[in-house]
Queue: 3 jobs
Job 1
Amino acid sequence: MKKNKSGNNFLVQGSILAAAAIIAKIIGMLYRVPLQNILGNEGSGYYSTANEIYAILLMVSSFNMPLAVSRLVSARVQRGEYRNAHRVFLCAVRFSMLIGGVIALVTYVCAGLITKYLLSSELAVYGLRVLAPAIFISAILGTFRGYFQGFSNMVPTAFSQVIEQIVNAVVSLVCADIMFRYGTSLAASQGNDSLAAAWGAAGGTFGTVASISVALIVVMIIYLAQAKTMRLRMRKDHTGVKESQSDIYRELIATIVPVVLSTVVYNITNVVDLGVFSNILQKQGFSEEQTMTIWGIYSGQFRVLMNVPLALASSLSPSVVPSLTAAMEKHDKAEARRKVQTSIRFTMFLTIPCAAGLAALAEPIITMLFTNETGTPLSVGIMQIGSLMIIFYALSTLSTGILQGIGRMREPLIHCCISLVIHLIVLYVLLTTFNLNIYAVVGANIVFAILISIMNAVSIARYLHYRQEIYRTFVVPAIVSVIMAAGAYIAYLGCHMIMGNTISTVIAVCVGVVLYGIGMVSFHGITEEELAGIPKGGTIIRVLRKMGLLR
């Protein structure tokens, strides 16, 4: 029984991180709604463009630092080498400060060249320059989070993420409003209406810098508060093994470089999509303002909503990596296979119904959240078609983390490169031959995520001798989700006859959640043993027994 508890600890920690990520994403989604309304579709396009470049640069400098540090720290903790684990942390701090500082400086200096020549969106330069300092701060923040995660402690990361998003929401809205009004005055004097949107977008990015700074202060306080416990662990380290800094730096670089490259390729699709999309549409006669408006609807509405369920997969990966690293250090492939199966089932259990629900209630949700009615039909169509992206992006993200956790660092990079090439071919054909406009971006991204998921699954099966269970992991959740989506939509139609859109949508979502839970238990998609392994599983079991759904 003790082994089972230990084996499920990664799921508990992952659930903590997932809960925090969901809260953070909901906060992020909620503040993006008034932000979208302040900036408009064009301003949202500039805001998203600056953030997409920032995200890529962040991946190069620090985004993967938590994963790399947690993997190296976890391996040493498993061997009882607490002093070496702390040495890894100190080396990682110095490494991240150097890399983050250099990239932040280059970003600020070259922001104009990047936005003008790479993305054909020159006015996004203001937002990108504001974001440059955040690259340096994020590099240090990622190292602290990775250190805690290496001890399978996701609480500091989870807590700081929630605080980060709260600060981000407040500062972004205030600064966006101030800078939009400033841009409006500039637009009147210079005769360029787009300046209001561009300066407003720059104001919105102030929130990122402020929030990351606050998050860093939070994790540093937690680190200092736990310093005594860490010193006690190091005093109990009697392994007698002392790694040199040069060895640690070599291993850190050897770990982080393939992870960085694979993550950059994995996430660069959005920037590449924007560049290809903007250039082709402008050649087809669309203006920059029209292109940014369409992209603003795609990125400011659909992708914001999509990121909420995707946070589940993104949150489970950090807890899976140190857990799988520990299993591989013990040469326990059976334990690794159990963790893989549990994590994939848990992710599909949650993301498949989210995708179905967003597709079924696309119009009510868009209408409830966004006030710009001119973009509603396009946004609804994107969400209905793009709901498959949620499932396959979640699966590809998690399976990439699994491969990295078992030490297969090169495979995700190879898979991402192959998928990116095919993705670009599909995108070009859909844009030029079929003239699908923004729907070409959605279709190409679905192909990209499916290809990575398939290739990752083949690699996991090869190296762990793992065979994925299909029926209860994919088939049952899909069937139940279709039933749930139909029930939720019928509930919405019934309520909307006598109530407003917002209340009807909330009721429909609640009906969907209840239907899905009942359906999964009724179709044996989840067992009592699996329920017991998740946080508050005992309470859920007691409620289901009272309802007569479990014996």
Job 2
Amino acid sequence: MAYIDETTINAIRRKHPIKEIVERYVSLTKKGEDYWGLCPFHADNNASMSVSPRLDMFQCFACKKAGNVFNFIALMENISYGDAIRLLAKEDGYEIGRSIQKEDPHIKDYEIFKLAMKYYQNNIYSKLGENAILYLRDRKIDRETIQKFEIGLSISKQPLTPFLLNKYPLDNLIDLGISNTDGKDIFNDRIMIPIHDMNGNPIGFGGRIYQTKDSSKYINTKATELFDKGTILYNYHRAHNKLTKDESIIVMEGYFDVIRASTIGVNNCVAPMGTSLTKQHIQILKKITNHIILCFDGDEAGKQATIRAIPLLEQANMDVKIVRLEEKDPDEFIIKRGREAFLQKIANPLNALDFKMQVLGEDKNLNDTKEASIYIDELLQELAKEKDEILVELTLKKIANRFQMEYETLNQRFIKYQLKQKSIQKTNNPNIKKEQKTPNKYGQATNNLLYYMIISANVMEQAESQVMMIMDNKKRRLFNEIIYYYHKYGELVVADFITYLTTKTDVIDTFWEIMNQNLKKTYSNEEIVDYIKCVNDYYKKNIIDKLKLDLKKETDPMKQANILKEIMKIRGVKTSD
């Protein structure tokens, strides 16, 4: 992977003003010193996206997408930040010299996996691989599909390890999960499915039995530096290239479900590595789409996996739909019912609320008055979590019609659950707790001061010389980064500062929290003085509170007197020695 230094990145950015790039995709209208247009990253009817030529950045105040020209290109083209830089550099004829190339430390590891893949592929086409080919043929997997997914075969009579040892040390093969400490193959007599990282580099294998009995139908490469099941999605490197911005990613459970879907032209499918969908998986998917279709197995385990995944996806503000199948899994469904039946399922998925309604009613006799009452209560409790007011209204009407109830009676009960849900959210939301601990006045003053430090060198210099300390750890880190960057480069260009913060994941989120406040860009000196005073007053209060605690614990009169003197000094009260 190529590394590009910051100076080069900033030079490329300056040759591509944000307004010119955004206008390739969006019509903009000038309002004041900024330009506004419909945000292309969500269904926008209100021109929520602002483009600031002065800050050289875009910002949507509805969906919170924001950034410099590279962020915009990366989002529009479904590519990485680094690829966005290279795309603009190439477009402008900008030369990225060899002096800024940095070798990926895992190049040798990818090389080993590629050789292993070729070895396994040669095996499956050999005489000893005939049974594996027959097994795949019985599963309706033809040679074209075998080649597309680079499927191979591990054979105990033709071990991989001795072949690789001709070129690589055993320690490397052990670390990568290919061989054990005895110099033997980890995978034996299994159909081998290569697994790749997000960039398409091979990083492991899934091995399936095909002619023997084993307690483990599948085994995967062990956890390694490259192979972390919680962050890997099978087929992601192919699927995201097939996706347009408004399409969904279909999440399935197994390799062969994904492979089967591909045989009927459905290529936007991925699968977690035998684990539940994790928050890390969801963050990876969110980079390319906000639309997810869960198409897990049709059994009880698949239903439970769906139930677990829905709240995680909803917390990430993703649009989640569900497909439930009558057969064991998508692989079997497509084989038995055909392409058109599966496409119909995908074209008409359930929304999360309809799925919950379906699940809640599965074990109840809804003709029984008592069970129907329990069912309605459970539905209303789920509905109270829903944010879409239109969906809530339609669902309440649907329930009222189905059970021939008065809408107002149902709505009154719903409102009670809605108030209860809001109370629970307020109690459980860690962000709300944090706001309770930090006075609103101090928090807002800190946020406003950081915002004006970012856009004004004068405010930055004033804050550097006058602010005692910012008590919030994350905001203090951003405060320090602003000052460091300004002194390093002699100025703070916001678009360049974004590039600088891109790799500092613990700071960039705080930066966007500050920038998404939608504050006015003009300020008075009186405002800045007030913000600094508020920040310092809060710092003094914390120090005084700590000294008071020390005073309570102290028994030595002389030390007590010194603590009191320190408190008075902080308060600005003159004391005589």
Job 3
Amino acid sequence: MKKNFYITTPIYYASGRLHIGSSSSTIFCDSLARYKKQMGYDVRFMTGMDEHGQKVEKKANLKGLTPMEFTDKLAKNAKDLWASLDCDYDYFVRTTDKNHVEQVQKIFDKMLEKGDIYLGEYDGLYCVECETFYTQSEVGDKKLCPSCGRSVTVAKEESYFFKLSKYQDRLLDFIETHPGFIEPAGKKAEVVSFIKQGLQDLSVSRSTFKWGIPINANPKHVVYVWLDALFNYLTALGFYEDDKSLYEKYWLNSEVVHVVAKDILRFHAIFWPIFLMSIDVPINFRLYAHNWILMYGEKMSKSKGNVIYPRTFTKRYGSDAFRYYIIREFPSLSDTICTPEDFVSRYNSDLANDYGNLVSRTISMAIKYFNANVSYKETDNEFIKSLNDKINETVSLYHKDMDEFRLDKALQDVSSLVSRTNKLIDETAPWALFKENKLDELESVLYALLESIRVITILYVPYLVNSTKVVFKALGIEDDKQGLLDYKLNGKMEYTVSNLDSPLFPREKDVQKAKEEIIQDMEYELTLEE
């Protein structure tokens, strides 16, 4: 029986075009979903858009559009972007979807009936940009939002409140007894520290604007955007619908992983599990919170002109190179600085010089020396034995890193194997073996190289979606038969290879010129309409 795996991105706020920060989360989830499929899991991968709130209403008005027209456009842009990055999700949720709206209304009613929500008045500080309420201590004397740095406003209005404090001790106990609930460990410490300061009851409705989900019991109020948005993970599975098969399969009987950026950690690590406690739903998920991708050391901001959009790279290098770079530099444990020169350097070193060159050299030698047909030969060559040991070690490390959500480290594992495989060529000098007519030894070397390339390419499948298919074809292998459960060495006794039609990753010869052209493209992308 297959194991189930449900992975979600944060649903992205519908306020503008998505840049590489958002793309990193989606590519991360897509890569992990592809890995789980290789491992035989039944996978459901979900992404989407958070479309309600005062900020959306204001931005739509500024553009002369209704909020629905505005969000329709942004949802289409998001879907087009994910398609261009080869992100193969199963469901795209929108918080304006009729089924989501109806389920959230029922959930709110249930919380209200239970006594977890009550009507009161909010008098405090609010950030429109982040759709978040803050205390005076959080915004400081300058009254700046601790997340986006913008000025907060004083908000005073009738509001429904959720009794977060009621569940504070229960949540702390849950976190303590579920050590893998929040990853990495440093993020868990942040959450626990915040909870222990004391949770304040949370405003969960707004009445000063209309763009949201109306509350059945009091339609002049709309549901606060974070309560509305967080329940997408359940409504997308039909939690409150007649057919609960997806909910039962992918929530109750599945490994569930929410991937979020650090700025929305609190909402997912505190609000979300407490909301689930309120409606008696199991907290059956692990939360992985990553850091930010910075541009030249600063958080990306369109007003600063330092935003990078994926198309800047994909139209020049293709989606595989961009996916590789994003995951290889993924901000797992600390913020990551992204620059055009870093991208070109990583592209040249890892993809063009190392992997791409290894594949083309090996295939060319197989065609030149053995007319494209290379068979397994028994050998006691110490260099080949060393390479095979490295392959088995790498696969073991790769699994460990993937299971710990360290996809960046998993790619480092593969890069190390690529380097070791290239080293075998230097150690054995196939051209010299051919001149000396040591054909059996030469064939065993080429076979070992092809086997290593096969395993490397299997490991790259979650990231290099298109290039790996090209390599499998050149190796004479059906790519859909290459799972990680049966990678074992010497499983394919004979290779019949064929030439690549073009280099996998053409080397960027003039790095300075490439950098300048990328910067020009970045500047051009900033001028495009949302």
